[in-house]
Here is the input.
Amino acid sequence: KPSPLNGSHLSSDIHSNGLNSQQHFIPSLSGASTPASTASPGPVSAEVYFASHVAPKSLHENAEKIRSFVDRHMHEGRRVVLVTSGGTTVPLETQTVRFIDNFSAGTRGATSAEFFLEEGYAVIFMHRQFSLQPFSRHYSHSRNCFLEFMEADDEGIHVMPAYVDKMRTVLAEYRATQKAGTLLTLDFVTINDYLFLLREAAQIISKMDVNAMYYLAAAVSDFFIPADKMSEHKIQSGDGLLNLSMDQVPKILKPLVNDWTPKAFIVSFKLETDEALLPLKSRQALKRYGHQIVIGNILTTRKRVVKMITMDSESEIRLTAEEEEVQHIEIESRIVPELIKRHSEWIEDCGKHGRCG
Ligand code: PMT
Here is the structure.
């Protein structure tokens, strides 16, 4: 009979919100093919993590892309922002059949990337594979199928008149971005892909001495199964209940801020469901990691209210119902210019003092 190692039970479909730090799956002692993970008391350090996990195959190629992208835009005098977007997955098997995911569609990241591009930034858009992307986001998830924007007649296939104006604008922006080469998209799927790619990008950008902005909107898994404890093959269902024990993902904001890219302007996000916790948790993050700003958002209101929290200030950006529902203003159109202003001040300050922060 299966017996849980510890913690709570997992429902059989293994679909879960990777953001919820209460989430703790435990499962499976039954059968030789199940993961034999044991819970560790706290997160391993980033150093230990990287030493005990294998880098994704695409890392080298992506590193080259980042290097030449940043080099080009640095010489052309553009500012660089690295936007992370969408959710990371946590595989349960090495030959992955099942994985844990979270709700993020990448709306925040993809929308923000567009506004950074509009403001002249060169954008490294590090996103979950198949999540929303700048420009195509207007069409990819808003209807069942892109064909719903089209109609056919004897002369050919056209965009339906109701969508033409907006599509003309989006298309023009998309083409202008392609021409300028200001958008580099890199994808990740698993938490492991994400961690290696973020570290690589940060170290490359830092070596090039660029005061980049990091806009960490991705929903990053809090728990994972370490490679050496993962089942190689598909976990068998015939063995009864599945209990998982997962380790904590290392807190990589600390090495990001202190070691990998000390001159960067780092914006992290904090997602909560309880409004009362948000300022406290955001300040805790600032204290713990020493970065510049936390943007706090509540799951249900994240598209119309955010809080911008620094060590010595707190402000709110809030859309009115009219702005949101009638004018269709996106809150990222307010967040991004505010951050750009602060990024400018940060760069100016770095220049004055010869050091940042
Ligand atoms: O994609 P959408 O549907 O638009 O949703 C957007 C969002 C709600 C996901 C986004 O606005 C948001 O809040 N993202 C952060 C989610 C979160 O709570 O992350 P966290 O508390 O686990 O992590 C804090 C910060 O550190 C985040 O910026 C995260 O990207 C970063 N982080 C966390 C852990 C880790 N190992 N690496 C990280 O970079």
Notes: DSSP finds ten helices and 14 strands in the chain.
